[in-house]
Design a protein that fits this description.
- With 112 residues, the protein is mostly beta strands.
- The chain has one domain (6-98): OB fold (Dihydrolipoamide Acetyltransferase, E2P), CATH 2.40.50.140.
- It has a five-stranded antiparallel β-sheet.
- The chain contains two helices and nine strands; from the N terminus they run H-E-E-E-H-E-E-E-E-E-E.
- The chain has helices at 6-10, 58-61, and strands at residues 14-24, 33-38, 45-50, 65-69, 75-77, 80-82, 85-86, 88-90, 96-98.
Length: 112
């Protein structure tokens, strides 16, 4: 495993956001959703392509808190421009399980 310096970690803006929109990403090569995530007043709503179809339905994602990286460069994924990375872990079957806070925290809160 490669090690990083603390200063490298401090550059990554990992924030809590609330999913305010979720719909199937019909044009995606691998099944995915287009999410709109509200990261609070200072950051706003960002769009993301998320390959989380194995455990989640769009209607179940609305209102959920997620953890995302908000300072990666924007990335064109098919017809959408992804503006953040919603984080998760692969389970034993290779399906993605969202990384989420275990208590309510305000959108925009930064990982410490």
């Amino acid at each position: 495993m490669q090690t990083i310096e603390w200063q490298d970690f401090e550059k990554v803006e990992i924030r809590v956001g609330r999913v305010v929109g979720a719909e199937p990403f019909k044009e995606a090569r691998v099944p995915a959703y287009v999410l709109r995530v509200d990261f609070g007043e200072a950051i706003g709503v960002k769009k993301s392509s998320a390959r989380i179809t194995g455990h989640y339905r769009p209607e179940d994602l609305i209102g959920r808190l997620v953890v995302g990286v908000v300072n990666f460069p924007r990335k064109q994924i098919g017809p959408i421009m992804s503006e953040c990375l919603v984080t998760g872990f692969h389970d034993g079957e290779g399906k993605v399980v969202l990384c989420v806070p275990d208590r309510e925290v305000p959108p925009g809160a930064k990982l410490l």
